[in-house]
Amino acid sequence: IYYIAGGNTVPANEYRQLSIEKLVRNTSGNYNSSYQNSVSANINDTVEFQIVVKNTGNQTVNNVRLSDILPNGLSYVSGQLNSEINLGSMSVNESRTVTFQARIVSNSGS
Question: Is the model's pTM score more than 0.70?
Answer without folding.
Answer: yes
